[in-house]
Amino acid sequence: MTAKKQSSTIDIIEGKQLARHMTPPSLPAAWPNQLNAYPIAICQLDKNGRFEHINEHCQALLGWEEEGLLGQPLYKHLSPASPTPNQQDFLAHSQTAYTFQHKDERPVTCRLTLLPYQIKDALHYLAFLQPIVEFTSSPYLPAIPETTTHNHIHKQLVEQAGDVILLHAIDGNIQYANPATTLLLGYRAEEVLQLADTLVQLIHPEDRHITRKAHASVKNGQSGVHTFRFKHQEGHYIWLESRVSPLTDTHGKICGFHTFSRDVTTRKEAEEQMQLDLDRLEYLAQHDSLTGLPNRVLFQDRLKQAILQARREQKMVAMLCFDLDRFQRINDTLGRASGDSLLHAVASRLKQCIREGDTLTRPGGDEFAFILPGLNDPQEAVRIAQTLLNSLQKPFVISGHEVFLTASVGISIFPLDGDDLETLLIRAYNAMYQAKEQGKNTFHLYTSAMNVVAFERLAFENSLRRAIEREQLTLYFQPQVEIVESISFDYFSDKPYHATPATTQYKVVGAEALLRWQHPDLGLVSPGRFIPIAEASGLIVPMGEWVLREACKQAKKWQDQGLRDIHISVNLSPSQFQRPNLIEIVASALEESQLDPRYLELEITENIFMHDDEVTRQKMQMLCDMGISIAIDDFGTGYSSLLYLKRFPIQILKIDKSFIMNLSENPNDAAITKGIIAMAHSLDLNVVAEGVQARNQLNYLRSLQCDRIQGYIFSRPIPNDEFVELLKEESLTPHPVSTP
Ligand code: C2E
Ligand code: MG
Ligand code: MG
Fold first, then answer.
1. Where in the sequence is the domain holding 44, given as residue range(s)?
2. 120 Cα–ligand 2 center, Å
3. How many folded domains does the chain comprise?
4. Does the C-beta of 479 come closer than 6 Å to ligand 1?
5. Which of 103, 131, 159 is at the close of a domain?
6. 739 within domain boundaries
7. Which of 443, 299, 444 minimizes the C-alpha distance to 364?
8. What pTM was computed for the model?
9. Which end of the chain is more exposed for a tag (fewer CB within 10 A), N or C?
């Protein structure tokens, strides 16, 4: 067979009109013997269309054995209901749908494909009969009279269509599949008909919701076009664009639906590729190709978003312009490639300094910019700016050279310095140029008044950082006093049990350790000034640990000196309490000092109970199990629920001094104090009143049987040597102090 002849065969199989003028291919005489090897109905006709050979599939299709058909014209076996062409017309068409008559008179609709060929110069035809599931054979479909030309044309249209046409019953099962199904999807019509419930398995899992929805809609009479992936018989997925429309019976009732589907894989792949290209282009348009950081375009967008969010949440946003000092020098001496690697290395270092949610960008050149959203205080921006500058302290190694870099940072804050993008940008740049003028390697805030505050605070924080190592921290102690009433009886009196005037003693039973900072320039700094900064910078953790160890050591020393066995109260900040190693630190402070745990009291504030209940409870329980007492400091000022008093292991309440100070003037405070003491006693808790300064406060608390008094009336917090003197006294004398 020549290549040309071969192509004509392919044409027929693809359903195109046979070119009659083509020379038919030649086949060997013995060829018809092989017909049985083909799994389709196939027969050989002579030049007049009479049967010469009939394979077994064809015999089965028509219901006759070979002998019953030999020599008879094929078209004579057409059904009486089918239009009957003459012999010439019959043989002139390469592909036509005909309804043949089975031996038992049943109609068999087939697509007849005729292929002319030669054997020893004689013309023969090869006829392929491909059965088609009859439209009318479906119980779901309206019966259209077979004889109408209309119906006949429709059938041809459906069968010759290039799109896959499927008829579905209302439950979705396929009733009919046109020949294009095989071409497009690879399944033979019979296979498709048998798919039934398994049809859904051929839809890509991610697209099944589409077909499910389409099915639901079409059952309600709605047409639609849907695109989904369908598994080809060879195992790969192809994209189908499928138009689904309902089918109605003669009464207008929906009895099924049909789908016209075409392969749109090429288009889809092109679309996907285009989307990838667009994404890539968008990425390139928004990112710096050298560092992969967002560029100016994305930066402006992020800043806009951050401002919107800050407006909603009433927060601040800092914008930082960060410019490397004298970077051009690097490019000039080491070359541009080294300059680029250096910028890359700088970007990685800077990235490590920012918080999650902050944006670092490289608008261009040796310039970086940051957006720090969700700030409560400009100081947070100052701290990050300082961290960024510190991160450059270590040299960079580029092409074997050590390179030292510094930078200048300008800071503008929304809403203090402006409430729109342009203003904030300009002001951050202005601030950055001022930082450069100030001699580089520094930061500058746009608002000059804030610069003073920022520098002061930063300087303060830096010196606080060194306070522990420079041994500038010290502990003061304030006594906690128990009121001991003793009544002595005059046994010589006439009247029995006549009490002589009672004696009242004020015994020191404990001390609160209070931190002080002996600053070289500022003198003694009170905790009210530095504890909040220590909390914000995390310095409170090492400081608190130092206090705990010192306080335990001191209490043990008093005992060893034979002074008095009193307990020591140590304040724990919330961040200290939340540290996972709190228990170990407390245990090691006790171990180191050899202080009996029953002399240690830890003061925590109510706010701790707003955090994870169970973890907090377990931690407190572990401390109690060690023999330590827990006191709630500043009771009445924090978290409003009292439920925690029952749920958590607490031994002591310290009434906040704000209630005590106004006891005589404010009846509410008196009532609250009375209530707290009564409630604490009913819960078996001890009460300490803080801030007692006046005689009437003391008397009132005494009448309520308050367990301990702490206040200036007995002593202010004092250094250890003074406190030792106090401990030597049997009883303290109240010295009222007037309230300022
Ligand atoms: P606090 O724990 O409630 O300590 C009691 C504060 O009340 C002390 O202030 C004390 O001097 C003051 N005070 C006591 N009696 C009177 C009085 O009669 N009148 C007046 N006006 N004040 C009185 P101080 O020492 O300035 O400490 C303030 C706060 O600093 C403490 O309040 C505590 O919250 C915190 N603090 C102190 N030392 C430490 C510490 O080592 N760690 C932690 N985390 N916080 C500490
Ligand atoms: Mg306290
Ligand atoms: Mg307190």
1. 15-131
2. 118
3. 4
4. no
5. 131
6. no
7. 299
8. 0.49
9. C
